[in-house]
From TrEMBL:
Name of the protein this chain belongs to: Aminopeptidase RNPEPL1
Cofactor(s) demanded: Zn(2+)
Superkingdom in the source lineage: Eukaryota
InterPro entries to which the protein is assigned, alphabetical: Aminopeptidase_N-like_N, Aminopeptidase_N-like_N_sf, ARM-type_fold, LTA4H_cat, M1_LTA-4_hydro/amino_C_sf, M1_LTA4H, Peptidase_M1, Peptidase_M1_C
Keyword set includes Zinc: yes
Protein source organism: Vulpes vulpes
Peptidase M1 leukotriene A4 hydrolase/aminopeptidase C-terminal domain mapped to chain residues: 526-671
Chain spans, region Disordered: 674-693
Amino acid sequence: MAAQCCCCKAPGAEAAPARPPPEPPPALDVASASSAQLFRLRHLQLGLELRPEARELAGCLVLELCALRPAPPALVLDAHPALRLHSAAFRRAPAAPAAAEPPCAFAFAAAGPGPPLPAFPEAPGAEPACRPLAFRVDPFTDYGSSLTVTLPPELQAHQPFQVILRYTSTDAPAIWWLDPELTYGNAKPFVFTQGHSVCNRSFFPCFDTPAVKCTYSAVVKAPSGVQVLMSATQSSYVEEEGVYRFHMEHPVPAYLVALVAGDLQPADIGPRSRVWAEPCLLPTATSKLAGAVEQWLSAAERLYGPYMWGRYDIVFLPPSFPIVAMENPCLTFIISSILESDEFLVIDVIHEVAHSWFGNAVTNATWEEMWLSEGLATYAQRRITTETYGAAFTCLETAFRLDALHRQMKLLGEDSPVSKLQVKLEPGVNPSHLMNLFTYEKGYCFVYYLSQLCGDPQRFDDFLRAYVEKYKFTSVVAQDLLDSFLSFFPELKEQSVDCRAGLEFERWLNATGPPLAEPDLSQGSSLTRPVEALFQLWTAEPLDQAAASASAIDISKWRTFQTALFLDRLLDGSPLPQEVVMSLSKCYSSLLDSMNAEIRIRWLQIVVRNDYYPDLHRVRRFLESQMSRMYTIPLYEDLCTGALKSFALEVFYQTQGRLHPNLRRTIQQILSQGLGPGAEPSAEQASATADSGVDADAPALLLGDEAPSSAISLRDVNVSA
């Protein structure tokens, strides 16, 4: 029987309830080619098959939509050249959205030459027949394409329908395939996805904008012995078929759909949390976080209301993970390299916990206002650490980050447009390029300023709780936050606090340069004063007396953030006089070499920036043991801007086989820039490149003659998303 328009009344049937007013269209996002403003996305279903040997993902995507106006000519989705679309089809959908639970199984059907592709069975209540649709793919930017699917001309407004797309994805920026050698266990292949900011359009066609949210479900088929996890609730696993089923009951933007698969094992660390890691890492991960995550979640709930996502699990990924952490709902992704740096681990996990309220539940509607997620999450993170570890520790960590902010500002210049909170995203510019410390720390300073206006942190917590309750599972712009703030505090609105001279809200959002006001960190002086005193000793005259006084201070008893802050100050002053570097090495080198990687990389950057050859063997040993961007890129940048380019080349050609291809390409780019005009690697180095399978003629190497700037290295950026 043909489906009726939802406006029609069947003979003898009761009148249909009044339709709610249409939702406002999403905010325009110049980073998206999609026609999201013309449709309401109700649900998406993914049927995926992982093919690690071919480094290929095969997918069937079912989008459940309603048009917001009659007869839209086409549906435009964000896609990517790495994604090959095999077919598109249309069918009418039942009036009610699909349940969050995915179908019990998915089948495979041929779609031309090659292995069969996943296909969902017919949904109950839907038209059994699918109508093929015409489609085309057009260029959009260097980070994506536009996929235009022609729709039937008779489509009515608010009439639910489905578009079914079958595709394969290879060499996708969102999908990272790792050979066993790039894992800790060296036993099984590994794959993970990273969607932030605009990479998931290479994972599946979508409205790749934070303005659009929907529920989703997934069925994933994986090779035997591979554990699959997603940023959702796992509902079942059929071992004999290797099929996992997941569902996400709350609306999320496309960038928060995430998948990981590999040799992963779980361990419970709390009543609603577990860690997942490779077997050799699991004991360490468990011992570091057992009981702590529940403590942080409980503190956050006291401040901002109930945790909405059910479970809070953590998966530790191999060092190839390109950032420190990612706040995927239900399943935070964290780079395993951070496990050895306890205080950084604590801060990074708490930051991702805070995103459960700010970023995941309430999301910035455009990438131009990422501070709405990152600034609020940073503020919430520091409220949680204050409640859990005290104000002194929070002030120390804040001082450390603000120090890095001022360093970045000095290098970029106070008139840099990226120092605005509301950054203008030009067409074609990748939104990921807007991720910097201003997003986090200038955003934090504005939120902190708002909290000071109301005079009581607890009252501001109450406001943020109400803000989350009002806007949860939606996307917002800055005006939504500020209007809510002034409505919650009418006395402040009467005082026109938004227009105070020099501190106008509009100026906070659109002025370049440093924060208009910074927090009072005096409660951390017991921890920051010794750092400043030691730094002053090392810059005092005469050196022998200063060194003697400094050696009496036992920094082995310091917190990690104290030592890191001290070394950052020395880095800011580099190059230092050689006699100072020699004395520093004599006093600290062996001690620092026994500390965690966050400390060691800072000392080694001092060694490199000061061309201190006696400690170069430590730089070599460090790079030989590291496979992570966060601990390799900053050193290679420094090596290539100084007199140690040949040393950098030598180390790279000896270690590149242990690096992910993406990281290899990035380091090659740094090395090729650092070589200068006309310079070429030696015959031995060229041979090593050929033997490693790295394309020495890759376009990424041909980027001009200027040496890269080591100014803004990854250590200066909180690269937790």
